[in-house]
Structure formats: C-alpha cells, structure tokens
Amino acid sequence: MMIILAMLLVVIVFLAAFIYFLGLNPQEVTIFFYNDFSLTSSVAVMVVACILVGLALGFVVTVFTVFASQVRHWKSTRRDKKAREITNAYQEGMSRLVSGDTRKAQSLLQKALDRDPKRIDAHIALADVHAQAGDAQQGLKQLLKARDMEPANLEVLFKLATAYEATGQPQEAVKTFEQILAGEPANRKALAGLRDLRIRLDQWSEALDLQKKLAKASQGNGEEQKRLVSLRYEVVRKTIAECAPDQCKAELKELNDIIRQDPQFVPARVTLGDAYKVAGRREEASKAWQQGYRATGKAVFLSRLEDLFLDAEDPSSLLAIYRGMLADRGDDLMFRLFYGKLCLRLEMVDEALEQLSAVENAGVQSPKLHLLLAEAHRRRNRPEDAMQEYKKALGVDKRLHLGYACESCGATAAEWQSRCGACGSWGSFSLEGRQIIQQATAKAAEAREIHHGERAE
C-alpha cells in the first residue's frame, strides 16, 4: 500500500512540474525527421517525451542486463556443478586406485573422462590403473591420447617413456626422453632416465655421454661422479673385449687413469690385469693384481694370482709373492685363507694347516674354511679331525639336524619356521635339498620289479 501511495505521489509531482513547465514555455517547436516529415509540439512536451523515451530505453537496457546476468549465472552454476562432479569422480577414482580397487577406479576415472575428455590428469590416472592391472598396452594408449592433447606435458612424457619400456619398445622410450631433452636440455630426471635406459640396452658410450652432462649439472654429487667412473670403465671394458690384445694401449692407459681417479674401484684393477694376461704380459698382470689386493683387500685378486701362476705351472713364484706379503699382512685372515688353500693344492699340508688354523683360531666360522681344514687333516691321515671339520662345514650337530630352506627365496634356517623372514612367505620352509630327493625318489619309483618269466623292455 505504501509503495502504491509513493508511486502516486511521484506521478502527481511529475504532472505538477509538467504543468508548471508548460505554463512557463508555451511556445512550440517543429522537429524535422526528414524533408516531408516533421513534428510540431510545445517545448515542455518535447522535453517530457525525451525523458520518457530515455527512461524506457534505460528500463529495456536494465532488463536485458539483468536477464543476461541471470543466463551467465545459470551457465556458470552448471559449469561449476559439472566441474565438481568430474572432480569428485576423479578424486574417488584416485582413492580407489590407491586402495587397490582398480576395477572401480577405472569406472570412476572413465566417468570423469566421459564428462571432460580433455582432462589430462584423468588420462594419466587411468593409464596408471591399466598399468597396475597389468594391461601396459592399454595404459600406453591412454598416455598417447594425453600426449596428443598436450605434447609438451612433462608428466605425460615421463610416464610415456616408462610405458614404452614396459611394452617392450625401448627405442620409442629413447625418442620420448630425447623429446623432453630437446625442450629442456638440462632436465636431470630425463638425463638420468635416458642414461639408465642406455645402460639396460648396453649402449655404454651413449650412457657415458649422458652421465658427463649429469655430473656437470650435479657438481659436488659424489654418487654421480662414481657412476661416471663406472661408465668410463664399461666403455673401456667393451673396447678391450673387441680389440686385439696388442692394440689396446689407449684403453690400458684409460684403465690406469680410472684407477688413479678411484683407487677403490675393483673392476678396473681386475680388468687391467686380465688385459695384461691376455696380451702375454704376465709380470704386469701379477703386479696389477697385487696392487689391487693391497689397495682393496678383495679376494678376487688372490684368485686371479693363483690361476695366473698355476696355469703357467709356476707355483714357486706365487709362493714367493705370498711369503713376501705374509710379513706385511700377517693379520689379514683373507690372505691367510688363500695362502693356506694354495699350500693345500701344492701338497704343503703342514704349512696349509698352520695358515688355516690361524684363521679358525681368530674366530672365523666358514664352511669353506672347515672344508679346507678337513681336507688337510684327511691328507695327514687324521680321520677324526677331518670328520669334525666336515661336520662343521655341513652344519651337522650331534642331533644330526639337516636344516631347512625357503622354497620361495632360498633362505636357510637351522630350525623350521612358519614364516620366512627374508621374503615373508608362510609355510615355505622345507628340508634342504627336498626337491632333489623327491626327483631321485620319482626316478627310483619308475623302476619296478620284473617278475619271473617277464621280459624287461
């Protein structure tokens, strides 16, 4: 009621103002719209008409603006609702994926993609679902769709490289890594991924080139420098294996340089001695391996030395080397073990017992040590001592325990266990050698008694 009265008051005021204005301006005005058409009216009427037309236009514009705003709001609400539904489907799908429900995860993520086919994260997640479900090929197809939409998306490209490897397409994986590096030459993840792929493909030179870039980009990273040494070695090792023994001077120099850079890098020292041996340079091979053992204490060098001199039927030179080393390495139990083994091979049984007993008295309990001691006692015609050492080597105690082994991973235990501590499987422990015994039993069962009068076939 108040609104109607207010509007009526406005109209009355407007009419009063119009009459007052009309009384002050009684003259008329003629307006020509074109040559033959004009309109004549008082000034007051013209002014009021213009005001009314302006109000009408303003009203129309206001109504149109409000309507357009409502339409935009409606569309925005629909978009937001759709986006929320898609996001909810995606998030629930990811939750299902994490929980291992790949079937439900695939359904939800596919629903999100049906609503928004250009959602890259949903394509990536669906590819992960396929990979987790063991369908690497379908996951690859999903990632290819994502790449077509965003060719420079790094997450897509990295996962695509992994998918190519999983589907047995290493060269395509290489191209994918190279595509990443074309846009970002210093991308460490791409450099490392491509390097590892080159290593798996035995492409050592290419891997070394990539490692040099990584080492340069990761100055101060000790692991990258160590890997650089390792790859340098692999390149040299491959070249030595392919070239004639007398044509490997540059490679031998490179091996020596690697040893200077990393004195503890065992493969380079072993290969250096091997190269000298193949080339007929026995003294240099012996020197390389002796230096290798002194620097690292690794048993492989003693094995190499033993084979070198015994193959050449020159045990006296090896004995001289060992006896010279004994003065400096009397507390080196590994050296004394190999020295005792050598003496045993040369029928120097007393000296062998002396060295091996020193190792045993130091607290070393090793099946190999006990086997060597048993053999030494046997050759000295000490059957009881030999038997005791054989029992220690076999792990046989007074109760004649035979021991158990996990059929899943091979871990051993003196007593049966319900669960393997190494691989976590239950009920997998059985008697060591059970399969061999069962096979032998099966073969024995194949033989049967031939009855009187029956011919064997």
Automatic annotation (TrEMBL):
TPR repeats sit at 154-187
- What domain of life? Bacteria
> Mostly located where?
membrane
Keyword terms: Membrane, Repeat, TPR repeat, Transmembrane, Transmembrane helix
Instruction: Write out the transmembrane intervals.
Output: 5-23, 43-69
HemY N-terminal domain location is 33-124
For this protein, the record's Pfam families field holds:
HemY_N (PF07219), TPR_16 (PF13432), TPR_19 (PF14559)
Q: Where found?
A: Membrane
Is this entry keyworded tRNA processing?
Answer: no
Q: What is this protein called?
A: HemY N-terminal domain-containing protein
Top-down, what is the taxonomic lineage of the species of origin? Bacteria, Pseudomonadati, Thermodesulfobacteriota, Desulfuromonadia, Desulfuromonadales
